[in-house]
Amino acid sequence: MDNILISCAGGPAAIDAIKSLKQINFKGNIVTIDCDPLAVGGYLSDVNYIVPLSTSKNYWDEVLDIIIKEKITIIFVIVQRIDKLWKTLKYVMVVV
After folding, report:
1. Domain ranges in the chain?
2. Which tens digit of pLDDT belongs to each residue from 69-82?
3. Phi, psi of 54 (to 5 degrees)
4. Can you tell me the distance from the alpha carbon of 14 to that of 27, in angstroms, rounded to the nearest whole number?
5. What pLDDT digit, counting tens, does each position of 4-59 carry?
6. Is-contact 58 66, C-beta < 8 A?
7. CB atoms within 10 A of CB 19
8. I need a labelling partner for 17 at 20 to 30 A (CA). Which of 11, 69, 72, 74 fits?
9. Residues 6+ apart with CB under 8 A from 37
10. What CATH number belongs to 4-89?
């Protein structure tokens, strides 16, 4: 069984992804992360985590802890600004 992690749970892309996974009766857990405790996707997912801003020094440490704890096998990286993601990702590589 696959567990999926969806970032930016408050954005429309994340919300649509969660709804689509539920429509196809996805068998694993849908885990979401967002820095906003009121992000809509957090209420639609099976498990939700509040994480610091992606620009925070400990962001990737917290995300990696979630990946390990929830046994994540699929990651949907949803970002509002791709330039922010690229700046962050060039320093981090996660192997699942």
Report:
1. 4-89
2. 999 999 888 765 55
3. -65, -15
4. 18
5. 999 999 999 999 999 999 999 999 999 999 999 999 999 999 999 999 998 888 98
6. no
7. 11
8. 69
9. 50
10. 3.40.50.20
